[in-house]
């Protein structure tokens, strides 16, 4: 990383965005999207008829946030519903949202927090199945830069890396800083969309603390390179950090698309729900066989350790509850002005459990 360091009053500066976007463009140029062609385990048997093609946009494919969608694709659950699904990798959740709004993707896999932020900015989006009942993000300090760390107050004037400005990773870091009496302007922020580049920056001493996604954070933690100081990767941890249940990743789209293509959306939700149920009991050999090698960041053992560390965070039933939505809205209000909005009406527009309830009834049948 080159160039001047951000000042303590600077906004989050994006690092690694160009590289991630460049990779996505190459994938599209090759006509691959981010579809794993010829993946093992994909079966055409049991198809419920051809419902056509569908693009699901999502952030970095190696993130564990999107694993239920990946599993549904790899195991042929989408195909069994008559869906020809293309998974399209984006640089970050913001880009995934933009792809849905612009019509470049029909649906997206991304954080519920991003949906709420769009609602607060006047852009209607709606989620229809919850993948993560806790976010797969953690905040840690560098054991190299801060070996004697005692409290968040020690981060004053320090360099903090996050996944992106205004993302859940920054909200997590800000919540932790507040416990030490610090404001966002008391640290220097830098954004790293790439988990690998964020980890490298921390190793090279360019960061004093990092708030980012798994599997990167678990890898850094297991190697002794970070000391995690805020960990919402389990339902209990999320409650401790945010004061209530904090939802993670959902599948979402434009309300108009969801209404007009209800049958397609119902099929998507059923496939994702099957993926969630599979993850509840998956054994190590199942994960190794199903998850693409490219998503394991070069270390199967660490990836498995990370998966089992966060498995509890995957929703067992795909349903998003009122308490979780209210917690997420409180967090969103720390990142964007939420005044002047009817909170309950906004939350009601942001999600529907209708598809999940029907899918669960079918699974029980």
TrEMBL record:
Location of the SsuA/THI5-like domain: 66-280
Protein's name in the database: NitT/TauT family transport system substrate-binding protein
Keywords assigned: Signal
Annotated compartments: Periplasm
InterPro entries: SsuA/THI5 (IPR015168)
UniProt main location, coarse: periplasm
One BP term from GO: alkanesulfonate transmembrane transport
Recorded GO CC terms: periplasmic space
Transmembrane regions listed in the UniProt entry: none
Family: Belongs to the bacterial solute-binding protein SsuA/TauA family.
């Amino acid at each position: 990383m080159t160039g001047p360091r951000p000042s303590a009053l600077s906004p989050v500066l994006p690092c690694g965005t160009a590289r991630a976007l460049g990779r996505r463009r190459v994938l599209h140029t090759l006509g691959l999207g981010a579809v794993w062609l010829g993946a093992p385990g994909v079966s055409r048997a049991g198809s419920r008829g051809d419902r056509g093609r569908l693009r699901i946009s999502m952030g970095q494919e190696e993130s564990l946030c999107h694993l239920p969608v990946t599993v549904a694709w790899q195991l042929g659950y989408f195909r069994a519903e008559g869906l020809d699904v293309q998974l399209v990798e984006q640089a970050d959740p913001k880009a995934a949202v933009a792809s849905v709004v612009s019509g470049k993707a029909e649906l997206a896999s991304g954080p519920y927090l991003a949906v709420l932020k769009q609602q607060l900015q006047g852009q209607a989006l709606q989620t229809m199945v919850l993948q993560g009942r806790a976010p797969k993000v953690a905040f840690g300090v560098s054991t190299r830069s801060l070996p004697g760390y005692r409290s968040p107050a020690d981060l004053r004037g320090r360099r903090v890396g996050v996944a992106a400005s205004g993302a859940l990773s920054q909200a997590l870091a800000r919540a932790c800083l507040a416990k030490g009496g610090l404001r966002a302007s008391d640290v220097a922020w830098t954004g790293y969309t790439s988990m690998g580049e964020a980890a490298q920056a921390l190793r090279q001493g360019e960061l004093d603390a990092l708030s980012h996604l798994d599997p990167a954070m678990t890898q850094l933690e297991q190697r002794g390179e970070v000391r995690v100081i805020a960990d919402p990767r389990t339902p209990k941890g999320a409650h401790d950090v945010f004061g209530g249940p904090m939802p993670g990743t959902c599948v979402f789209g434009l309300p108009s698309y969801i209404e007009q293509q209800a049958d397609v959306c119902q099929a998507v939700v059923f496939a994702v729900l099957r993926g969630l149920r599979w993850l509840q009991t998956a054994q190590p050999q199942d994960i190794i066989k199903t998850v693409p090698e490219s998503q394991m960041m070069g270390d199967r053992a660490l990836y498995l350790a990370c998966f089992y560390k966060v498995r509890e965070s995957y929703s067992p039933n795909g349903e998003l509850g009122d308490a979780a939505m209210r917690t997420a809205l409180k967090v969103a209000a720390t990142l964007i002005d939420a005044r002047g909005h009817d909170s309950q009406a906004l939350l009601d527009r942001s999600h529907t459990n209708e598809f999940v309830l029907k899918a669960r009834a079918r699974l029980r049948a």
